[in-house]
Write a structure and sequence with these properties.
- The complex is a heterodimer of chains A (about 250) and B (about 250).
- Chain A has nine helices and ten strands.
- Chain A is of the alpha/beta class and about 250 residues long.
- Chain A has a six-stranded mixed sheet with strand order 6-7-8-3-9-10.
- The longest helix of chain A has 18 residues, at about 170-185.
- Chain A starts with a strand and ends in a 10-residue tail after the last helix.
- Chain B is mostly helical.
- Classes of the chains: A alpha/beta (about 250), B mainly alpha (about 250).
- At the A-B interface, α2, β6 and α3 of A face α5 of B.
Chain lengths: ~250, ~250
């Protein structure tokens, strides 16, 4: 389980997280939804220690990751995989090298076993015969799938997805969502997805948390959030311009 | 007014501290977890081998202009025979290390900053961190080692090519005695001159990799951030090379 307790984070004068509390259950897919610019990616980066809170506590499976040494943080990070919003593939490496990189650096596996695992991971995300291409030569959807293969190749216990389907067409979006569901069913990891995909995300995630003004407004199962009576949650899900969330 | 001054002073001190820490941590990582030799060789190819053309070109013309200027100055005193010494000492002690370093700064230092800066803004450095891998091991240490090895070698090539550039102008064009050109040089250049040139080029290698990596690592947002970081990197590295050159010269003289 991952828990955030009373987390505050500001960038200069801009307060992004304001006493945020959230419990992310183990082995389930939890989606974090909310208006753009509300700090969903900031929240995600706190879970893996890429950002440290100004105050408050972040715990991963009972261990605090706030203010700890880099070596301790790296030990905890080994439990994680992450798919970035812009995928963050290493652009000087081929697809094969990108997916093989964590295996080469974190395991002592022989080269032929690494090759077998990389090709299997690529096949799991529906990619074949592209291992010698560079990220620049791939479409947005293919990049996301390579990023997903890289995130799961070490079988991490927790995977963070930062807007995995942003900028993709509806069919690729559905394919990526299905891939996340399938890989989750296969490996059983804990997943946290930051997403704007309403209503599709309710089909992917078992739990949903709505972030607004630096706090979690509501957190519950997908059904509970989908049928929420909270005015801001209702407005966000329906995409209405009228309501407590004033974006313009 | 006082508040603004205090604020900017704190900013400068913080930046200096961060820059110094960056260098110390880079050396710590070289000792603790040196990157793979393959990464170092790749960087040596980029910083060293690929700079060869520009080094040879500038060294040749620097030697030639030294030959030309030196000849007309020495001819006033009837000491044309000392041309080899003048060219060699100027190059080995001063111009070789400094000009080679400035050329590498323009060619490789800027590219180092741009490469790391792009990796920063495209979250590739964050990706390394999420894999529990230290970015210094992959991005900074190999470049620092490669620059520390490559710069003295490039400086040596610069010196040799420059000396032959001076020979071409002095001996072949202006008629200085070829025996005197090399004999006087051999008599005057001592090990200490060569040593001081190598110490300088080694430390310039550290400055190029250090500032190049640092500016890229902390590049601001977007293309503008990387562009600003690259410009700052080239300017700061060039200034530091010249300032550090003065201090080293005063110590090594």
């Amino acid at each position: 389980m991952i828990s955030l307790r009373n987390v505050h984070k500001s960038f200069g004068a801009q307060k992004v997280l304001d006493g945020l509390n959230l419990e992310i259950p183990e082995g389930k897919i939890t989606a974090v939804i909310g208006p753009s610019g509300e700090g969903k990616s900031v929240l995600l980066k706190h879970l893996i220690g890429l950002l440290q809170p100004d105050s408050g506590q972040v715990e991963v499976e009972g261990e605090s990751i706030v203010g700890i040494r880099r070596s301790q943080l790296n030990r905890i990070r080994e439990k994680f995989g992450m798919l970035f919003q812009n995928v963050a593939l290493f652009d000087s490496m081929t697809v094969f090298e990108n997916v093989a990189f964590p295996l080469q650096e974190k395991t002592a596996l022989p080269a032929d076993e690494i090759r077998r695992r990389v090709l299997a991971a690529l096949e799991d995300v529906g990619l074949k015969n592209i291992e010698n291409k560079y990220p620049d030569e791939l479409s947005g959807g293919m990049k996301k799938r390579v990023g997903l293969a890289r995130a799961v190749v070490l079988n991490p216990r927790i995977i963070l997805f930062d807007e995995p389907t942003t900028g993709l067409d509806p069919i690729i979006k559905r394919a990526i969502h299905q891939l996340i569901k399938d890989t989750h069913a296969k490996f059983g990891f804990t997943a946290v997805i930051v997403s704007h995909e309403i209503p599709e995300i309710f089909d992917v995630a078992q739990n949903v948390a709505m972030l607004y003004r630096g706090e979690i407004l509501q957190h519950g199962t997908s059904e509970v959030i989908m049928n929420s009576d909270h005015p801001a949650v209702r407005q966000f899900i329906s995409g209405s311009l009228d309501g407590p969330i004033q974006m313009i | 007014m006082i508040q603004a001054l205090g604020h900017s002073t704190i900013g400068v001190v913080r930046e200096l501290g961060r820059t110094g820490w960056f260098l110390l941590y880079s050396f710590y990582m070289i000792v603790r977890r040196p990157g793979s030799p393959v990464h170092v060789l790749k960087q040596m190819r980029f910083i060293g081998t690929k700079s060869l053309f520009v080094i040879v070109l500038t060294a040749g013309f620097t030697g030639m202009v030294l030959g030309l200027q030196g000849y007309y100055t020495l001819a006033k005193f009837g000491s044309e025979g000392m041309l080899g010494t003048a060219v060699a000492l100027s190059l080995i002690r001063e111009l070789g290390p400094v000009l080679a370093a400035l050329m590498v700064t323009g060619r490789a230092g800027s590219a180092i900053t741009a490469e790391i800066g792009i990796m920063r803004i495209s979250e590739q450095i964050d990706a390394l961190e999420t894999m529990a891998l230290d970015p210094f091991k992959y991005l900074v240490s190999p470049k620092l080692i490669a620059a520390m090895i490559s710069l003295p070698l490039l400086c040596a090539i610069f010196d040799v090519v420059g000396i032959y550039g001076g020979w071409l102008v002095g001996v072949k064009l202006l008629g200085v005695n070829p025996g005197a050109y090399f004999y006087e040089m051999e008599k005057s250049v001592v090990w200490r001159d060569v040593y001081s040139g190598f110490v300088k080029s080694f430390s310039f290698g550290v400055i190029i990799a250090w500032i190049g990596c640092y500016k890229g690592y902390y590049a601001g947002h977007g293309a503008e951030g990387v562009s600003k970081a690259t410009t700052e990197s080239v300017v700061l590295t060039s200034v530091l090379i010249l300032v550090w050159d003065y201090f080293l010269t005063s110590v090594l003289l």
